[in-house]
Each structure stands twice: as structure tokens, then as C-alpha cells.
Design a protein that fits this description.
Length: 391
């Protein structure tokens, strides 16, 4: 059977990035797709052809790779509002030319739907449409689906490198105004090997995970460190806002089956992922994975429906009363609230659930304690002392 010629069928919607971006007007709010699903080609063309654009507001959850629109030379053309402060935009906040909105992940789609945070144009990345006209958001469903549903104009980079993920992860071409064919490798995030301290943390956390538990943890060295100590567990499930390469090993060794999950049995439920090309190949058309929007995945009441739900999150520092700082270093915003509170509260409400905060006790070669008598001046509390169960 010949490949489906979607470019011919939807020819009236197909165009170049330059043609599509002409619809962006001064003062528009522009949403950019999340994480490794960032439409890199559209973003690069946006800044290259921005001479007629000024006072445009970039909105995103977080983006990996480059963020050229935060360069000071574009000041006056673009301002940035992010829900999570990643490396590529941190300097713009430090210089006062970018904004950070602290918000629970589960609440972001509501801001789009109510119009409190209007979106004029959404720039997203999708897989090629199938014969029914359905495209997949691939590695990033999260708040992207809500942004597309509520944007006045949608421009989608159609990328053959985008895996076709299963679940509530699809959008019909009729909901897209311009299709821009452009293939490029997805951004990858490699896992760093954990040191001995992190391995001990991973081992301690793994001891709290019972057989049949459903787990939540993201990416980074602590989830990676935990993997080797979870291999002997039985019938683990996964309900998490995001995941990385660690999940492959635990599925292949039989530790993760999702067969004991209270809801969505037999499915790994997540809203986005970031990892290697191996991970993207693994999730492509894999029916084990069920990608869903943030408003479902991060809903604390959905999370709490899982018996033995274990939420595993990280912190920058914790004080002796249990207050958790995870988004700021003193007066400087460093990361974001993300889904920590959503999953901490959901796991705490779960029957047999456990809400865990994991962190090394020191930083900077053991010269600074991260367990403190009081939170550093200027730092914010993300998870309150009343929400903390395990540290």
C-alpha cells in the first residue's frame, strides 16, 4: 500500500513557515509547544522574520534546546512568560526581560479556556496526519492540547520524526489552520549517571515502593538512580506528568506492567516525555502508553483514585518544619512549581499512598546544607509543611 499523500489531500492548508507566520500581528500572544516537542523550525523562522512583529508575548510551559526570542536584541519584539524556568530562559528573568507565572500544572489549561490567558497563535509540532486526518502531538500533549483548542490561529510543524503516541493525544487537521511540513530530529535529553549519594537516595525511595504501587517521577538523576532498585518489584503502574528513559528498563524487565492499577489498568498514563531517540522510538504507536492532557493527568482527584499511589518529587531545600522550596534559590527563580503539589496532594489522598520529597542533604561539594532551619530569604515555599509526608 502506498503511503498516504496528505500534502495533496490537505493542499489548501499546506504552506511554508514564512507564509504561515505572516498571520502573526503586533501585540499577539504566541504559544510555543512544550519540551522536546518544541517546533524548532517554526521558532527559528519566527525570530528570523520578526521585523514586522513587536510587543508579542511568548507563552510556554517549558522548552528545551534554544530559545532565541529571549535574546536581548529582540527586546521590544518579544517578551516571554513561562510556567517553568529552564536553563534557556533563566537569564531573561535575571535581567528582568522575561516573566514567570507560578501556577499548578493542573490549573494552566483553565487559564486558556477562560480567556484569562488568551492565545492568539499556537505554534506546535505534530506527526503527519493519517488517512482520517488525525495528527498526534507525540511526545508533548500536556498543555499543548488545551492551547490548540483555545488558540485563535494554529500553525503546526508536521515532522516525520515525531512519534505517533496513543491516548488523548490527537488533533484533526480541521482544527489546524496551517500545516508546515518540515522534518528535523527531536530535541533529546540524555540521562546523567547518578553519583553514589543519589544512588543511596534512589535505594531509600525504592524501599518505600510496594509491589502493585503506581508511581510518579519525572526525569533527572534521582529517577535514573531509583531504576536499578525497582527492578525486583512486581506489577508497578505509572501515572506521571512526564517520564524519561528510565521507564524502558523497568518495562522490559517486567517491573512495570500496570496490571494492578486501580484506574487506567494496563496503561502508562503521562502527559509528556523527554529523553533519547531510543525512548521516542519505543513510544511510537506503543499501545501501552496513554498520553493525556495535563488537566487530567495532574488532577489531584484523578491521582488519588490510584491505590498505593507514590509521588516522588525533588526539592532545592527543605526546612526543619517541612516547608519545601523547589522553584527558587533565594530571590532568583530557578525552576517552577510544575506538578509537584498536584502529585504530592494526590498521593497523600490515595489509599495506601505516599508523598515523597527526595533531595541530597548538601550542595556545592558538601559546603551548603539543603536541610535548613529556615528557608533562605527570598525563596518561595512550593509544598507546605502540611503537605509533606516523607523527606
Amino acid at each position: 500500500m502506498n503511503d498516504f499523500d496528505w500534502k495533496t489531500k490537505y493542499a489548501n492548508q499546506v504552506g511554508s513557515a514564512v507564509e504561515a507566520l505572516k498571520f502573526i500581528k503586533p501585540g499577539n500572544s504566541i504559544f510555543i509547544g512544550t519540551g522536546c516537542g518544541q517546533p524548532q523550525h517554526l521558532v527559528n523562522e519566527l525570530v528570523l522574520h520578526s521585523k514586522d512583529v513587536y510587543d508579542a508575548r511568548i507563552i510556554h510551559l517549558l522548552t528545551m534546546g534554544s530559545a532565541p526570542y529571549v535574546d536581548e536584541k529582540f527586546q521590544g519584539r518579544f517578551t516571554t512568560n513561562t510556567f517553568f524556568v529552564a536553563d534557556n530562559v533563566r537569564h531573561s528573568l535575571r535581567k528582568g526581560i522575561g516573566d514567570y507565572t507560578p501556577i499548578f500544572m493542573s490549573d494552566i489549561p483553565h487559564e486558556f479556556e477562560t480567556g484569562r490567558m488568551p492565545i492568539d497563535v499556537a505554534l506546535v509540532s505534530v506527526s503527519p496526519p493519517d488517512r482520517t486526518g488525525m495528527c498526534s502531538f507525540g511526545v508533548s500533549v500536556d498543555i499543548v492540547k488545551s492551547a490548540v483548542s483555545n488558540a485563535r490561529y494554529v500553525i503546526a510543524q508536521v515532522n516525520n520524526s515525531m512519534p505517533r503516541t496513543m491516548g488523548d493525544s490527537f488533533v484533526h487537521v480541521n482544527s489546524i489552520d496551517m500545516l508546515v511540513p518540515f522534518d528535523e530530529p527531536l530535541i533529546t535529553v540524555e540521562s546523567n549517571e547518578p553519583d553514589e549519594t543519589l544512588r543511596k537516595i534512589g535505594q531509600n525511595v525504592a524501599r518505600l515502593v510496594e509491589n502493585g504501587s503506581t508511581i510518579e517521577c519525572g526525569i533527572g538523576r534521582i529517577p535514573h538512580a531509583m531504576t536499578e532498585f525497582l527492578r525486583d518489584k512486581k506489577d508497578l503502574g505509572v501515572h506521571t506528568e512526564m517520564f524519561g528513559d528510565w521507564i524502558i528498563d523497568l518495562i522490559d524487565c517486567g517491573a512495570i506492567t500496570c496490571n494492578k492499577k486501580t484506574i487506567n489498568r494496563g496503561k502508562v498514563v503521562a502527559s509528556f516525555c523527554m529523553g533519547s531517540q531510543k525512548l521516542y522510538d519505543y513510544i511510537h504507536e506503543n499501545p501501552l502508553f496513554d498520553f493525556r492532557p495535563t488537566e487530567y493527568v495532574n488532577d489531584p482527584f484523578v491521582i488519588s483514585k490510584h491505590d498505593k499511589m507514590v509521588g516522588i518529587n525533588v526539592a532545592l531545600e527543605v526546612d526543619l518544619t517541612g516547608q519545601v522550596c523547589s522553584d527558587s534559590l533565594g530571590y532568583e527563580f530557578y525552576s517552577g512549581i510544575g506538578g509537584q503539589v498536584d502529585f504530592n496532594r494526590g498521593a497523600a489522598r490515595s489509599r495506601g499512598g505516599k508523598a515523597i520529597i527526595a533531595l541530597p542533604s548538601t550542595a556545592k561539594d558538601d559546603t551548603i546544607s539543603r536541610i535548613v532551619s529556615h528557608i533562605t530569604e527570598g525563596a518561595g515555599v512550593v509544598t507546605t509543611r502540611g503537605d509533606v509526608h516523607y523527606v
